Amino acid sequence: MADLEQPFDHIDDTPFGSALSQRYLVYALSTITARSLPDVRDGLKPVHRRLLWGMRLLRLDPAAGYKKCARVVGDVMGKYHPHGDQSIYDAMVRLAQPFSLRYPLVDGQGNFGNVDGDNAAAMRYTEARLTAAAYELMAGLDEGTVDFRPTYNGEEEEPEVFPGIFPNLLANGASGIAVGMATSIPPHNVAEIIDAASHLIDNPKAEASALMDFVAGPDFPTGGVIVDGAEAIAGAYATGRGAFRVRARWTIEKGSQGSWSAVISEIPYQVPKSKLIEQIAALISEKKLPILEDVRDESDERIRIVLQPRSRTVDPQMLMDSLFRLTDLEVRIPLNLNVLDASRTPRVMSLKEALLAWLDHQIEVLVRRSTHRVAKIDDRLELLGGYLIAYLNLDRVIQIIREEDEPKQVMMAEFSLTDRQAEAILNMRLRSLRKLEEMQLRTERDALEKERAGLAKLLTSKLMQWKRLQKDLAKLKERYSPETELGRRRTSIEEAGPAREIPLEAMIEREPVTVIMSKRGWIRAMKGHVDLANPEAMKFKEGDGPAFAFHAQTTDKLLLAAANGRFYTLAADKLPGGRGFGEPVRLMVDIEGEGNIVALLAATGAKLLLATSDGRGFITSAQGAIAETRKGKQVVNVRSGAKLVIVRPIGEGDDYLAAMGDNRKMVVYPLTELPEMSRGQGVQLQRYRDGGLSDAKTFRFAEGLSWGMGGASGRTRTEADLSAWRTARGAAGRMPPVGFPRDNKF
After folding, report:
1. Residues classed as catalytic
2. pLDDT tens digits, one per residue of 479-507
3. Same domain? 254 vs 145
4. Which domain holds residue 281?
5. Cα distance between residue 162 and residue 150, in whole Å
C-alpha cells in the first residue's frame, strides 16, 4: 500500500480564477458544439442525428412497422448518446409533432402531445418509425459520402453529419440556448428554399435581396399570418437577425338578426392553445375587454376558437386589434441564424450564407459519392475482366483446376490475372458457365464502363457538378411541390401595421346610469337616468342616507375626492348594479380614514375649482386628476389643520369667482387671478381674521350671482350688481347681499 501513488502526491498550484475559467470554457465549448447549436449542413443537433441514426439501424424505414419508442431511446442512450432517457425521448417527441416541425422526421403512433400543450404519453406506450423526409436526409450514408467517428465508448461508429439533399436546417428550423449564445431559426417552405438555392447556383454573386423573390418568409406548421412588410423581412434575412410578427388567422361568421362571431382557425407558432384560451378568458373575467362577452373552444383535429362580442354593434377590427395587443394571438418569432459551419465554428449567417454553405456541402457529398461509386465500378470491372478471360479460355481453365496442385498461381501466371480475379474464377459456380452468362457479363461491363466515363467527367467538371445538383434539387421539389398537401404554403404574408391601442372607454357601450353614494360610503349605479326625487330609487340602509347622486354615462370616469386632497378614480361601468344597496367604495379604492369623502363627480368637465378650509385654492384639469391605481393621486397639498372642502366643476363661460367665509364676508374677483396647476397648495382666495372658507363658486359676471331661496318652492334670487363686492384676490370682503342664505353656502 505504501508504494501506491496517493491522490495528493502531485499538486499543481494554479490560481483559482484561471482554473475555473479553463474548466468553464471546456463546458461552454461542449454545450455550443455538441448540444445546443445545429449544423448548417444537415440542420441537426447531435441528439437528433443520433436518434435518426439509431432508428435507421433498427430498420424503421417508412415502409416498415412501428417499434416502441422505449426500444429506440434505449438503443440511442446505450450506444450513442449517454444522457438522460427523458431528454432523448423529449427530442424524439418533438421530431414527431406535426405542429412543431414543418416536415416531421419521425412518424409517431400514439399520444405524442397536442397543440394545447399537453405532454406525450410515456415512451413505453408510444411507437415510431422514420418519415420519408428523414430517409431523404440520410440518403447516401452507405456510399462514402460523410466521415464516421467512434461513439463515446468506442464500440460503435456514428456519422459526423448527414449527407441527404433535404434542406432540413431551414425547412424545419431549430432553437437552442448555449453558453453565451443562442439560436432561433423558424421553419420554411422546402419548394421556396429549393428555388432560392437553384437561383444561387445560376447566380452565385446574387444580392441577398434577390432571394426574397423566392423565399417569401417563414412557413409555420400551424399556419397563421406574417404581418411584417417585405423590407423588414428582407432586412432580417440579410443579417441573420430579426423577428417576424405572426398573427392568428380569423374570419367573421354571420349569425341571425345581424349578430356575428369571430372564429380563429390558425394560431401563432409554438403558442399552446390552452394558454391562449386562458388569456382571453382572463380578459373577460377581469373586465379588461368589455366588448368581448365569451370565448369558446370548439376545436377537434382542426382549431376553432369562437369569440362572441358583447353586441352586434362592436367593430370586429377593434375587437381583434385589442386581442392582438393583449394576448398571444400576435407574437414575435425571433430569427437568429446562429449555426455551426463546416469547421464546427459557431457564427450567425445570413440566408444567402446558409444556403451557400448547404450547397457546398451537397457538392462535397456529390463528389464523395461519385468517387466511391468509381471505386466500386473499378472493383467490379476487375472481376468482370477475369470472368471474361475464363470464358475465352474455358477448357484450359478447367484443365488447370483439375490437374494442377496450385491452380491459382498457374492461372495468374498464364493469363496475367490478379489475385482477386483468380480467386473469383475459382469461386465461380458451374451454372455460371452457360453461354447466356457470358453475354450478360459483357453487357454489364459495357454499362459500367459507360457509367465510369460519365462519373470521371463529373469529377473533373465543377460546372457539371452544379448542374447535377440542380437536377437533383428539381427532383426533390417535385415531391414537395406547392400543389401537394405537404408542400403547400401554410403561412400567408399580409403586411399590416401594429395593432391599434384602443382606449378602454372606446370599448364600453355608452348607456345612461344614475350614480348614488350614501353617507357611509356605499355606492351603486342604477340603469338609466332615474328621478332623484323618487324615494324608491333613494333607498338606503337603516341609519344611512344620501351623500351624492347624479346622472352619468357608463363611459364616464368618476372622481372621488378625499379631505386630505387625494383623488381616486372609479369606472362608471364597473360600479355594482342598482339592486340592493351597492358595495362599500373602500373595496374599490384605498381611502384613508373614515368619513372624509368630500366630493364625487363625473370627470366630464374640462376644469375643476379646488379649495381648502383655510382659504387656499387653484384650478386643475379634470382629466389630470384621474388616478391610474387604487391608491389614488395626490392633487391638493393640504396644510396642517386644514382639509379639502370645495371640488366644483367650472361652467363653460364662467369668468369670475365668488368666495364666502365663515365670518359671513364675500369677495368677487376675476377667475384669471387663480393659477391652473396639476398639484399644489394653491393661492389665498380670501383673508380671514378668524374661521376659514365656507363656500366658493364660479359664475358669469354679466349674469350676476344667484342663490336658492330655500323651502320647497325652488325659487332663486339674483344679485345683478356685484360692483360693491368686486375686489382683488385675497381681500377680506364685505357682508353678502340682503337675503343670502344663513348657512353661508351658495
Report:
1. 125
2. 999 999 999 999 999 988 777 776 666 66
3. no
4. 249-328
5. 16
